[in-house]
Design goal:
This protein is about 40% helix and about 20% strand. By secondary structure, the protein is of the alpha+beta class.
Length: about 550
Amino acid sequence: MSMTGPGETSTGTASLSDIKRALLDAKLARQRAEAAERNRIAPVPRTDRLQVSDQQRHLWTLHQLAPEQPVYNVPFVLRLRGALDTGALAGALRGLVARHEALRTRFGSEHGVPYQSVDAAPAAWPLPVTDLSGPAGADRDDRVRTLVESHARAPFDLENGPVFRTHLLRLAADEHILVLCLHHIVTDGWSVGIVTQELAALYGAEDGDLPDLAVQPADHAAWQRRRLSGDGLRTQIDYWRTTLAGVPAIDFPTDRPRPSQPTWKGAELELDLPAGLGAALRAWTRDERVSLLAVLQAGFLTVLSRYTGEHDLALGSVFSGRTRSEVEPLVGFFANTLVLRTSTAGDPTFRELVTRCQRTVLGAMEHQDVPFGTLVEELRPERTPGRNPLFQISFTLLTGAMVGEFGLGELAVEPVPVENGTARFDLAFQVDEATDGRLRVWLEYSTELFERGRMERLVGHFRSVLEQAVTDPDARIGSLELLTADEREQLVSGWNPPPVARAEDGLLLHEVVERWAAADGSAPAARFEGTELSYGELDATA
């Protein structure tokens, strides 16, 4: 028999502390497993009425306000060059719709509460074709443009569907234009890339060797509904309540007065930033260990603060919302809008402003589980007709082009720009970080408020600030020049020519008016819309 002292164990015999530790480890492992199970996105039974996500509920409500408007249409158009197999294309579209329930979903409502219904996968996909083959020219180009825009702007019937439609324009035996259009309630920027990638994989293939999808958007919606009732969400809402307390609207100067009832008319503007500027910005972000979004946002806030004279600036910014790996391969509407509120007070250096923006972005990302619609309902901001709640201007960085370079078999494919003629916000400023390293500015703006020329100057001022800031990041933002070289030349020289010598008896215009007023002040000098001024009145008024 062996003897053991206090705190000692004989060989092969566990001490009481070891047993307690093992029990505690088992309990913690069980709790982690239970938490993981509760947090798992699991398939839900398919019924006629499935829950919608909070993003979908919010967008469904907005759609009801103007169902005839194409505000939430998401069109993208592809030019196909080469020998197209129309049957293979229709088969690829059928395979795409069969894989992704979002593309065959309808949205009904009961007592004002929306729900979604998923239709069965189609046996075939109808692909309407319009033959525009014939001599190329301005007339055909106009017809193509008219047809593309009509398909892009046609309203969707969410209740009866479909929410995804396609049309093919045949320009020649080896040239076609494919028009794809979805309602935003079932898609986002990330989804557009999935659609194009999977079309390429499915074209001319039986299954394209695509992996099975473990869940679908309806499963995510049910999971999100469970999450929205948790205590963790309340903590996130409290963060936003504090962060956005008393957030002001940005009083951006407009070219026209704001209408009391907006019609959502808008236009788009796209410009590439110089390749050298994009490379310099990326190098600076690596050296400073900050995000490209924070740097670009700092540049945009610099411009806004100079335009408005304001320092408390809140921007909307769209994030993918795909914080779970299960939803990364899905077509659906997962994107979430976060509000980035940053101060430019104190005339900080550009480097200091980037630090502020980085802190804002990180804080928003840590609390991004709150859908924007839920946030608005919780905070109840004062609503003004014709204005969106919490922000009027958005700024988003899109990493990777929505439609990158790809092909359909031997076909060469290129995106075709198309507008739906609407604007969801006063200004939606987006920078696309393409796969080839280019930075492209995409600006959607309200034509009820702004002229195109002002928007072009805005982009030019954004570029000017970034070019100076990346060279001298320790410069105060108030010292960064907004004017481009062309604008400065116009102001300094173009509108201020050197004085022109005149003869001794030459008269300037105001001197001519004075002379006529002295000679015959009652003679008519100017007429406009029924009003007439005599020379005497004109001279006195001047």
